[in-house]
Design a protein that fits this description.
402 residues, 17 helices
Length: 402
């Protein structure tokens, strides 16, 4: 297979992997509040808090294991690591589907957290096969697959939710199995044996991986900006279903439809606009455009008076799809091929920290300010907080690039 064919096969596999994984994740979002209320016996406010801790369990495991998985991919190649991660996701969905208690639900999320480096390993694959000038566009392809997955997954989840809160989890497990088989037979290794490096346990941990960022100019500053951005972004998966059900009385089907709309916008921006505009805009201006869209979108969500305003906010926020591809491309330019797994593992640790802190923060804000006993009933508090965090991200990014 020539290099051009290998590149096409790799991009196709990464696109389909992220697509199917996101479909699986999106399928379960509309029914998660119902399942948590079923197992916990409370209302939406209580379920939202429990949902935050469920995401916390996933993130804390990802924080500790992502650098290890990234380092293993630098040593043994991307293919075996990615396939094992996909297998673990399938196990997680089955556990969540059968879970009779909250404890087993948390166990499943912990397994998925260990395997949660699949996306970062996919990013390392893209860095392996991309020229520097094409990296932002190719990272945008991952975002496009994520967007398409959110078109398909929540719609399916909303429909399957009519059959019961467990049905979407089994559908997600089946998709994970199909994805694993596809990867086993199609996915080529992207890291040549000549460019692999010895495994170093002192660097295969969150602290060691983050310290390695200090070797690259401006990487720590961009990582700090990404930290603030991803912390703000945690408001979306954490409280969207709870917020829209509480404020606008949306059903599971309407939640799924809204996520599908957001996914369509994401696919258009990251799959089309990033590939057309990034060569002209450049990574720095692309990041600023995305951050402006993020601030505007979060503010609209926070103060939306009706459902139509929420959809307008999604259009504004769609341009936030430029942020991660732009910043990731800026960071990945600074590391050699043999360190891309470690670098992406370090970025995954940054993301994991926000996933540890963000869901409890955002769900607690929603839970507190949505109660009748709150001094001010303001269910959009989480999105107002996200807007402030995005402004802080913009400031950090500005001074880093100076």
């Amino acid at each position: 297979m020539n290099p051009g064919q290998n590149r096409r096969h790799t991009l196709a596999f990464i696109f389909i992997t992220v697509l199917i994984d996101t479909i699986g994740f999106g399928i379960i979002l509309p029914v998660t509040p119902e399942l948590l209320m079923e197992l916990g016996g409370g209302g939406l406010s209580e379920a939202s808090r429990m949902g935050g801790w469920l995401l916390f369990a996933f993130a804390i495991m990802q924080f500790f294991f992502a650098p290890l998985i990234g380092a293993l991919s630098d040593r043994y190649g991307r293919r075996p690591v990615l396939l094992l991660s996909l297998f673990a996701f399938g196990v997680d969905y089955l556990l969540m589907g059968f879970a009779p208690t909250l404890a087993l639900l948390f166990a499943g999320r912990c397994i998925a957290g260990v395997a949660g480096a699949a996306y970062m390993t996919a990013n390392a694959c893209i860095a392996d096969i991309s020229e520097p000038e094409n990296r932002a566009a190719n990272f945008g392809l991952v975002g496009a697959a994520f967007g398409l997955g959110f078109i398909i997954g929540p719609v399916i989840g909303g429909l399957l939710g009519e059959l019961g809160s467990r049905a979407p989890f089994f559908a997600a497990a089946a998709l994970a199995g199909v994805n694993l088989l596809y990867g086993f037979f199609i996915f080529p290794e992207t890291l040549p044996a000549s460019e692999r490096r010895a495994f170093d346990v002192s660097r295969a941990n969150p602290v060691g991986a983050l310290l390695q960022l200090g070797k690259y100019p401006s990487a720590l500053g961009i990582a700090a900006a990404l930290f603030l951005w991803t912390l703000a972004h945690q408001s979306l998966p954490s409280v969207w279903a709870f917020y829209t059900m509480f404020k606008f009385q949306w059903s599971e089907a309407l939640v799924g439809a809204s996520l599908a709309f957001a996914g369509a916008l994401m696919a258009i921006v990251q799959g089309g606009l990033t590939r057309m505009w990034m060569p002209k805009l450049g990574e720095v201006r692309g990041a600023y455009l995305g951050l402006a869209g993020g601030v505007g979108g979060f503010l609209v969500y926070a103060f939306a008076p009706n459902s139509a305003a929420m959809y307008f906010g999604m259009v504004v926020a769609a341009f936030a799809g430029f942020v991660y591809p732009s910043m990731n491309a800026l960071v990945s330019r600074q590391a050699p091929a043999s360190a891309q797994g470690e670098l992406q593992g370090a970025l995954s640790s940054v993301y994991s920290v926000t996933s540890i802190l963000g869901p409890p923060l955002m769900t607690q804000l929603f839970g507190y300010f949505s109660q009748a006993s709150a001094p001010i009933v303001f269910p959009g508090a989480a999105y107002a907080c996200a807007a402030l965090l995005t402004i802080a991200c913009t400031v950090v990014f500005y001074f880093t690039k100076r």
